[in-house]
Amino acid sequence: MRGNVIIIGAGFGGLSCAIRLASQGVQVTILERQQHVGGKLQQIERDGYHFDRGPSTITMPSTFRSVFDHAGVAMEDYVQLYELEPRTRNIFADGTVVDLSGNRGWMKEQIAAYSPEDAARYDAFMDESAALYAEANRHFLGKLLLSPSDKYNLQMLRSLLRVRPTVKLDKLLRSYFQHPHTLAMFGRYATYVGSSPYQSPSIFAMMGHVEAEVGIYGVKGGTYQLIEGMTRLAREKGVQIITGTEVRQIVVRNGKVAGVDTDQGFREADQVVANGDVLSVNRLLLAPEHRKEMSNARIRKYEPSISGFVTLAGVRRQYDALLHHTVFFPERYEPEFDHIFRDRKMPADPTIYICYSGYSEAGMAPAGASNLFILVNAPYLSDSWNWEQQTERYGAFVLEQLAARGITGLNESDVLIRYTPRDIERDTLAHQGSIYGISSNSVKQTFMRPGNRSKDVQGLWYVGGTTHPGGGTPIVTLSGQLVGEQLASEILR
Ligand SMILES: Cc1cc2nc3c(=O)[nH]c(=O)nc-3n(C[C@H](O)[C@H](O)[C@H](O)COP(=O)(O)OP(=O)(O)OC[C@H]3O[C@@H](n4cnc5c(N)ncnc54)[C@H](O)[C@@H]3O)c2cc1C
User: What is the dihedral of CA 271, 276, 281, 285, to 10 degrees?
Assistant: First the structure.
């Protein structure tokens, strides 16, 4: 094995980077402060109920497959994905149901039931969505933008103009659709990158194509099996994974990485890859004199993405209304984003998402019972909302809202666990509890995220949601692989 790389963090970004490096003969150690690998994704077993706490909507399966392909193994020997059809059930406040589907005819029928005009524009929207996805794949998602010439060239400029970066997602949707249900259903894609449909660029309309045509996938045995599979592969490739060890400082000598100080002592390294949030890593692990480009003032300028308020409910009931993924929309969608990003308070009338993996697989809950992961979008942490005072009250409110929509009896759950943005920050050191790194609410934060190679410290790299290409499990898995490939080529040169 050549080189000596330390990766800080065993999330999707860190694990995928480690596998790519080790598969090419680079020596890698992962240091993870939590007791278990997985980062924001952890599994919880309680009284016969299985929960995956964290990401549940798995898209772009090829990004996970390529981790295994490049390591020369078959993904199916490590983890199995299955396609969900319908993808997601959307339930609106007036009782309208749209099961988002890969079947275009059925989609148009369902939309036509409340808006024949919107149904007539569905094909045109899906064509634009496919074109946006192709453009993003060609010029943005699949490459590192390390040097100014990678970012500022004619090809990139042309590509950027084609995706019309200054048009907001909601505005693009309004050029096709007019009914609030359709606008909310597709506007929600901005939240897949922790952002607002009214502020983020229209590029995220590509998620229409990604969900309907490429698909949403379940993971056999629960989403955490993706982490288990990647961890097993990493170990087989020789990666040393040490959990329960926190990096306290990145040690810099003469402007170059020398190693890391941990709560268990010093470890030497030629290169360090930080999988933790870029902003937290800089704030907490690098002395100010080593980060002129990422000063505290610069860090404060970034807007974090949304966070999440999670309830895990194990309940001795089953609900006909729920599929694997179900979204309950409020009467009006827009105020939620004012509450979150402007007021930094929990929404007064929230969109509530439920993942019920027991719908697809027996054994995730006792017979006749349900394992529900309930998620409400939350503001990143600030003085405007005090979770210590609000958790019980808001948690009870979410259950009341669900009861009003027919998901009753959650008060009598066998298992009821609440997990707040404060907990997310405490466990993963996510900057202000954000779950997708920085938001994509502006052109700059979408297309010019902090780069994957530190401008301040030679030998320091970043993978994960805050850096390029962006947040969400498939994209951070991509960032890990892109950095792994580049770093391996430099080490083995
Ligand atoms: C409730 C919730 C729901 C979500 N839903 C979805 C979804 O449906 N679909 C989707 O695609 N994405 C979803 N996401 C987002 C997704 O989880 C993240 O984009 C992704 O998991 C981030 O992976 P990562 O590798 O970038 O970082 P992380 O998962 O944050 O991993 C970073 C790791 O680094 C460790 N670390 C940090 N600092 C140190 C240190 N100093 N020393 C040692 N270790 C350190 C942390 O403990 C952590 O384990 C959700 C997230 C949450 C929390």
Answer: -70
